[in-house]
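Progress report, Aim 2. The chain analyzed during this reporting quarter is listed below.
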Amino acid sequence: MIYPAYPLVLASSIATHTHYGPVFLSSAKISTSGQNKLGQVEISIDFEGGKSISSPGINSESPELVVIDPQKLTDANGDTTESSESEESNFDYRLYRSASLMDCLAAHKLYSTISEMETEMAELTPQETQSPEDRLFSMSLDIKQEIQYEFPVPTKGRSDANGPRYASFPRRSVTGSLIYWSRTKDFELPNTEALTLFFGGKWFFPMSNIEWQQPSMELIPQQGYLHTFSFIARAANYAIQKGFMTDSANYPISEFWISSNDIEAPAGITQSNEEDQ
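Predicted structure tokens for the chain:
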């Protein structure tokens, strides 16, 4: 979602299916809505691609897979608690619930980290003792990438040894919307170029170059007004000029203000392997 047209290879330890790819992200949508209930965050991601002919260098007998270890339940001091019935530690079920609208944040400002956003917005948002006049009702982010394939004629420089087809990346779009509920038909929203969306967990999307579209309003009888603000995210500053230069790892690489250095390698994947990919 962060890297444009980033190729992926899916690995398996099954002998007849050692690897599959490369595949490319074609669309990704993350959204949540609070209509009539505290809506859960829904994530939908689609890939497209094909079977590779030449081996990507994956060990079919022992592929390097990412192993996810469950988080252990800790006490107030941060120490792991032990079960009274067995010697095994309890697993922290709270870290595995589905994220919902109450975990999400939207700010018309550029934040560098999740902790920075949570700390500052907690200070700006007082605890409501009465029903608020307005609130965030729904938020969504939609990423679409167009991948075109070319089937080459085997000639010098392009042969079947390199694969039966080549993939090109002509365009990509990042759009989204914020929907606010209000008791009145008048609603003001800051017309800023920066926007940061947080959907819980590690789904953090800071954007520095936003184009707001024509807003709309809907009246729901006996409930209130819904104000929809749609936007288009353009490439972040310096992303096109320096984002993919080898000596510019601190610059953003897409529409999101996230650099290569900000992206953590999954557990089990070493830095050298990440660079080789």
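Helices lie at 114-124, 239-242, 271-276. The longest helix spans residues 114-124. These observations will guide the mutagenesis work planned for the next reporting period.
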